[in-house]
Amino acid sequence: ILNVEQSPQSLHVQEGDSTNFTCSFPSSNFYALHWYRWETAKSPEALFVMTLNGDEKKKGRISATLNTKEGYSYLYIKGSQPEDSATYLCAFPGNNNDMRFGAGTRLTVKP
Amino acid sequence: KAGVTQTPRYLIKTRGQQVTLSCSPISGHRSVSWYQQTPGQGLQFLFEYFSETQRNKGNFPGRFSGRQFSNSRSEMNVSTLELGDSALYLCASSYRQGGNYGYTFGSGTRLTVV
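YS: structure for the whole thing
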């Protein structure tokens, strides 16, 4: 059973639109929250590791925020480009020292 | 710096057969974790190996097993294949045990069981 929830499941936007999606996770025993970007036919690629409540990280046009008290993280993409089309995964370390992944948000950016 | 290498990339097997998948981590990484992805599902944790020892195991039947060699390369074995084992199998390497420090993923092995 996944206890990492991501929404929406999929998203279609036009080139130039800004977009955001959500990752919800159990707020107790928080250690870290990871975001990955997974392009079709490639390997998942690490985007951010977030550890502190209120943390905000940025990489180019992509940024992420973290609220550990309420158990959510937002990923924002400003001015989406077709090359941003990918599945965005969030994950956090479980009790078993495994990484628990959400099902992902599949983003399609239309030119 | 070479990435995580998984072989083979694609595999077709028949029900009842067994299969072995291989993963070579990034040089210096001692942890290798294996994940399964099936359509509509998130990545499901199979197991993690660190310093040649299985440290953690996910909720998969005993038909799924693995091992790690002294050079940190890891193999995953699935015996008595079932149709439901058709999936993308990803391995991920990390410098330390557990996923807390993030993973570097391989490109995966896509297994089809017919």
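YS: worth flagging: The radius of gyration of chain B is 13 Å.
IM: good catch. Also The interface with chain A takes residues 3-4, 33, 35, 40-43, 45, 48, 55-58, 90, 92, 97-108 of chain B (CB under 8 Å).
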